[in-house]
Amino acid sequence: MPEGHSVHRIAKQFAVNFVGHRVAVSSPQGRFAEDAKRIDGHTMIAAKAVGKQMFLEFDNELWLRIHLGIYGAWDFAGDISIDPTIASANGRMGQTNQQGTVLDEAGENSLHSIGAPRRTRLRMSESEKVEADIDVFPPEPIGQVRVRLLTDTAVADLRGPTACEVLDPAEVDAVIAKLGPDPQVDDGPEAEEAFVAKVRKKPTAIALLLMDQSVVSGIGNVYRAELLFRARQNPHTPGKLVAEDTVRELWRDWVHLLKIGVETGQMMTMDDLDEESYRKAMAKREDRHWVYKREGLPCRVCGTHIVMEELGGRKLYWCPKDQA
């Protein structure tokens, strides 16, 4: 499932390529046809993400709410350019001075499309992949497209979302009110205090609380495992028994890692790498993380084998020594 950084990057794509433009909205698949009529032909005036949910605002006071879930993905095509705040990062990791484009071995390279608009196809879901340039615009829909958003220069096709609905402002507010704080929306002291207060009153395991979107927005399985290891926190400890300083450290580290994810498009969770190690990590997923998907392999710190177990229906990765 796409984690928070991916959804914020998708919202930035809409901000650059769709906001301020009149949008033709349709449902090639047919399942969204009635709702599509409510916003068809209107101008998109805002695009924002909160955690794993995205909201696109139109000039008739209606919003399109999207939750990609496990299978959802957006395909952008046309004269696509990327958000300048991402482009300005130029590959910088925040905690290092390394720069430059690094190609993922799977072809996923969030920096490849940065720069001048080009007539291409860009797939955005849990990860990003630039596909072949296109000759005809708009291209024919591929697969079961729930909703198509089309301007004179760009098109976005949505497939497989968990949620896709048109809401009024009050309904949008109600959805957001149920979500925990998101550092990309608010990383100030009030957001931190809200997170700390929720965690410190819960008897639920901290590993489950970090995945609870009402406690904190945007954290998924990868970031959950990595945040807990970086804090050397036992994932099974009830939230109310986790030291307050550790809870605050988790929040501040989430602010830090989410910023890196939004800037680079990759869930890089290892700090202070030299240039060679940084490039290796950006090129291969298995070299970006401390514990995620490293079950049976030696811990990078102590050498103990990383454990994988089922918790709350999801796989949990942790070091039984460093996180004892």
From TrEMBL:
Residues 290-324 form the FPG-type domain. The keyword Nuclease applies. Gene3D superfamilies: 1.10.8.50, MutM-like, N-terminal. It comes from the Bacteria. Keywords: DNA damage, DNA repair, DNA-binding, Endonuclease, Glycosidase, Hydrolase, Lyase, Metal-binding, Multifunctional enzyme, Nuclease, Zinc, Zinc-finger. Its EC number is 4.2.99.18. Residues 1-78 form the Formamidopyrimidine-DNA glycosylase catalytic domain. This is DNA-(apurinic or apyrimidinic site) lyase. It comes from Leifsonia shinshuensis.
